[in-house]
Write a structure and sequence with these properties.
This protein has helices spanning 27-45, 51-71, 117-124, and strands at 6-9, 75-83, 86-93, 127-132, 138-145. By secondary structure, it is α+β, with helices and mostly antiparallel strands. The chain has one domain (6-11, 23-145): Heat Shock Protein 90 (2-Layer Sandwich). It has a five-stranded mixed sheet, covered by helices on one side. Strand 4 (127-132) and strand 5 (138-145) form a beta hairpin. Helix 1 (27-45) packs antiparallel against helix 2 and helix 2 packs antiparallel against helix 3 (117-124). The chain starts with 5 loop residues before the first strand and ends with a strand. Keywords: ATP-binding, Kinase, Nucleotide-binding, Serine/threonine-protein kinase, Transferase. GO terms for molecular function: ATP binding. It comes from Streptomyces gilvifuscus. Residues 1-25 are annotated as: Disordered. This is ATP-binding protein.
Length: 147
């Protein structure tokens, strides 16, 4: 999944369906958007929301937006959509670089600060895709099972 990224070209804007693109730029706003999408799904289907799945989705949204801010030149688009039993979170940024997991220790054996977000996303998501955007940058989409 994350060791072997699915990299593709994106021909349609990431906000083409679902909640649409936003001016979103902070992790807290991403978490609120995910909470709203999951709550709407649970109301519409008359099902209870799995707290573990919601927690995973919130962490993924936070990590993807934080990484876009810290490493990708800022969030250029955010999209959340519920498709059946899954939630899709997409975050676009200005960087063409594909995320990589860094070893937790440096070559001298010292523990690194940070670098845990991408491995968390890869572990919690059912699927992760990285798409190159036509105007430059990338979109990362993570799929989380809600049940």
């Amino acid at each position: 999944m994350c060791e072997q990224h699915t990299t593709e070209s994106a021909h349609q804007p990431s906000g083409a369906q679902g909640s649409g693109p936003t001016g979103l730029c902070r992790p807290a706003e991403a978490r609120r958007a995910v909470e709203r999408a999951v709550a709407e799904r649970c109301r519409a289907t008359h099902t209870s929301c799995d707290p573990q799945a919601l927690g995973d989705a919130l962490l993924i949204a936070s990590e993807l937006t934080s990484n876009a801010i810290l490493h990708g030149g800022g969030v250029t688009d955010f999209h959340v959509d519920v498709a059946g039993p899954c939630l899709c979170v997409s975050v676009s940024d200005r960087s063409d670089e594909v995320p990589v997991a860094r070893p937790p220790v440096d070559p001298r054996g010292r523990f690194r600060v940070g670098g845990r977000g991408w491995p968390l996303v890869c572990r919690l998501a059912r699927d992760v895709r990285v798409a190159e955007l036509p105007a430059g940058g990338k979109r990362i989409t993570a799929v989380v099972a809600l049940s």
